[in-house]
Amino acid sequence: MVQTQHLESALKDFFGYSVFRPGQKQIIEEALNNQDLLVIMPTGGGKSLCFQLPALLKPGLMIVVSPLIALMQDQVDSLQDNGIGATFLNSTLDYATERSRQQAILQGKIKLLYVAPERLLSERFQAFLQVIIQRVGVTGFAIDEAHCVSEWGHDFRPEYRNLSQLRRQYPQIPVLALTATATARVQEDIVQQLQLRQPKIHLNSFNRANISYSVETKTKNSYQHLLQAIKEQPGAGIVYCLSRRKVEEITNKLQADGIKALAYHAGISDRSGNQTKFLRDDARVMVATIAFGMGINKPDVRFVFHYDLPRSLESFYQESGRAGRDGEPAQSKLFFSFGDIKTIDYLIGQKSDPNEQRIAKQQLNQVIDYAEGSTCRRTIILGYFGERFVGNCQNCDNCLNPKPIENWTIEAQKFLSCVARCEQRFGMKHIIDVLRGSKSKKVQQYGHHLLSTHGIGKDKTPEEWKTLGRALLHQGLVAESDDGYRVLKLNKQSWTVLRKQQEVQIAINRNQEKIKAAANNTYREEAEALFEKLRKLRKQIADEQSVPPYVIFADSTLKVMVQRQPQTKIAFAKISGVNEYKAEQYGEQFLSVIQEFWRSHQPKTSSSPNESQLATLKLHQQGLSIKEIATQREFSPRTICQHLSDLLAMSQPVEINQLVARPRKEIILKAIAKNGDQSLKPIKETLGDNYNYEEIRLVRGWWQGEQKKQQKNT
Ligand code: ADP
Ligand code: ZN
Fold first, then answer.
1. Closest of 368, 289, 292, 301 to residue 334, by C-alpha
2. pTM over 0.85
3. Which domains does the chain have, with CATH numbers?
């Protein structure tokens, strides 16, 4: 039995991570105790580790049931890249490969075996399983994407149903079910179908704190907004559209605008080719219908944009949740238009079953509530899953830019009385034309230029009137015909507004000027440049091995490399996401890119000393201490210290040993080697209270000067 305090070190050894994500440790401990488990964690929460680490710590083989070949391939690649014995068996393999994998399993070289459910339950495999149990033992069955057993989930797969056999045939082997679907009904189904035995149920929060949510109103040039939003984003992203036609259209436009975009929908024959290009960063944007779904295991998707309305809040959550699985900041943006509601409404109307219609309609309304809502978006989403999230998340548009709620009762009265004057026979556009005093042919043809409401709304723009009109519709204060003409009709509620019995409040979305902080921060630019270089190297290594780049290192790991700029393999191996195996495999290549970058980006101070610095140098050479120089020059000791460290960094003849005692210098140097020399703070933190910033700064200057001398010599 493994000691639990050793779990952290096992996590570092096998996966290179230093801390567990919420829930992981307890789940792993229970798995090690052979408990049956149901693990419900949002996408990106780190479910896989919950069965992978126990598999590595227990003797025998863990059998992982996974519905899609792409998912198996992806996980096996990642594991192998960590130097872990993992493989899969499926129908794509030739006989010889299958044989050799089976051999490896029986020789105990494999800790995790991925199979599809139909294969696992086949007679041939069951016979093989008996041999495995006798020779190496089976540590457990991990059922990934376990919601596939339930007809109530969004991805029912009949093959999953038969998995109940496992419990009957192998009562002694624990079963771990994992899913990202939260509804109570699906959870119940999983426990029943898989016949889990007194399972421990782990329900982790569905809050995806690293995803920033926003909604943008679609206007005529919404494509330009989309393009702009994509240009502002770093890294890869997905744009979801409702129809194949729209997918094609947007893909073509984006390509014409120089964005590396690809299309994905059920009608494209080389879908999987496009998917691979996206996974490998050969395309930046995937424009897709919802057919682009479960197989997408890419952790570094930086944004998911819904260019059309999703069908339900659950699908919106699943789709937007494909962003930021690596825990790094990511964006979800929904482009919302009133016209889209009509399209979906129409599609719902086509359904023959009235019950289905009602459910679909309700789901649509929940999406509209989300899009139209002026409260925290996260609160709305989590509320949908029955999770209470109170307060301000500071990471959604409504929390960051609260929309002012304004009282538009008078405008609403104008609008509604205009609907009445036009005899409830026209749509919104015509009503707005009349309010704004248009003399168009249509207005004159109906004599509407003579109405008392003609021109009473010139003070508002057509967009503002539209915002009001939509708000009235959504608040049920006016009705609309459902014959496709969208004729506005007054209802009971309209009359209460007209009779001044009800006030009208609407959220006004003023186009707030975006204040963009000038990016004059050179350090940030440099950091981005190094990040790009490391990405390139990662891509090159990934291509050589035919795996997606994130299998080599996650974005977050590259970021830490940029921050720390490790100079040695030991420092490199300490980075989160790097284990010993990876440090051995890739350390040299990454270190040389970092060092090369470091050399070509010397700090700006590396030119020649200025007059003030030279004056300090002169006094130093006369043997004065820092305090004495400070007194003589009427500067603070801190400034003199800064002069001397800058001089040291320029390889000027400053005697470091007069300033910092040698043993102290050695210890400070060690701390610099560990933390890099970019920032003093981590060095100070390593050294603790016995060392002050002054001496650290001096030693750093000396160290930088030495580096420069060495480069000149080589
Ligand atoms: P899920 O299956 O729940 O969607 P994954 O298991 O694929 O999520 O994990 C998502 C990402 O998080 C992966 O890149 C994984 O390597 C990473 N990850 C998992 N556990 C940790 C951890 N403890 N520390 C850092 N990263 C982790
Ligand atoms: Zn919020």
1. 368
2. no
3. 7-203 (3.40.50.300), 211-400 (3.40.50.300), 405-473+487-509 (1.10.10.10), 513-600 (1.10.150.80), 611-713 (1.10.10.1390)
